[in-house]
Structure to design on (124 residues):
């Protein structure tokens, strides 16, 4: 097994951090769904600390929101890679995009379920 050439140690970590920052910036600039979910996360993260009565409840509110962001980033990466291949329609390209979209939908449903259950438990 061959190692990839490149930096190691702290310089590799700094490079990886820069790549991640560029990825977040690209997602913010080019992906409307990511912007919407990121803005929602900015609201929901602090709300989780108010709504959750225990550390576990707070985590049960924060983790699904973070998961939505993570899955949306993966979905956006899949879409970008598929679009890079070419503009022609292909059943496998459509299937890959649809599967990525389904993953986002499931993560959103999990988020809604978690928030809904804790809200019902707290207020009803």
């Amino acid at each position: 097994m061959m190692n990839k050439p490149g930096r190691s140690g702290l310089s590799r970590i700094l490079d990886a951090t820069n790549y991640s920052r560029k990825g977040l910036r690209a997602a913010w600039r080019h992906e409307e769904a990511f912007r919407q979910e990121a803005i929602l996360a900015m609201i929901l993260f602090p709300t989780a600390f108010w709504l959750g009565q225990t550390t576990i409840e707070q985590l049960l509110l924060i983790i699904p929101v973070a998961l939505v962001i993570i899955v949306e980033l993966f979905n956006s990466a899949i879409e970008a890679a598929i679009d890079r291949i070419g503009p022609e329609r292909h059943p496998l390209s459509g299937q890959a995009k649809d599967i990525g979209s389904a993953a986002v939908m499931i993560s959103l449903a999990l988020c809604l379920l978690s928030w809904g259950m804790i809200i019902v438990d707290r207020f009803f």
Q: What stands out?
A: The chain is about 85% helix and 0% strand. The radius of gyration is 18 Å.
